[in-house]
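Quick note —
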Amino acid sequence: MQLRARGKQITSELGRGLLEFLRGLRRLLEASRLVDAVAYGLASIFVLLPISFIGKGLNWALASESAAFALTVVGVSAALLLLFAALMTNEQFLKDIQLQGIRWPSLLSIALAWLAVLVFGGLSCGFERIGIINIQPSVPIADGCATRYADFYLWHLFDSIPGIKFAETLGWVQRYKYSDNLSGWLLLSFKLLVIVSVIGSFVVCGRLRREVASATTVSNEPAKKSDA
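Predicted structure written out below.
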């Protein structure tokens, strides 16, 4: 009987010790913001991983024998991009996903920029396939032209960041040149889409944070008065 009671006591003490350890670990994680970092990392995988498959899908579609099928896939991808860009500036959408701080808008902005780079790379490849744009050096459709032409837009994306001179600092040379008007309009559309959507999302999120902070301050004032 004494041995059994002793065993129960040891088990109980171990359980309490484990519980205190987990509580302390939780407080440590919360204090160091590791929980937020892990959540952000998991969200990044969830949001960004599917976009990489879109690039592979575009390469596969553009390498098919049917130009109509290839352009249809690119067109659907472009429609999804426009929908994503519209959501990025939609106040109700940002409220529904309960964005906190600047972390989640930054993640969505990265996702939007990456998707835009791939989709516009696919548009350039598809239009070149039917002969209405001219890019040099030309990439064969079977060699992953969507993701390779995406480098053209990625370079311009980083080059458009004011004050940093990213490409110049790293010696990153633009490999692709175009000699037609449509490519110029595509590039302009890319810049406007990404810049306007990203800036718009941060403006909306900033206003939502100020509204939440103001509402919290107003709700706390009656409590302070009652305490006084």
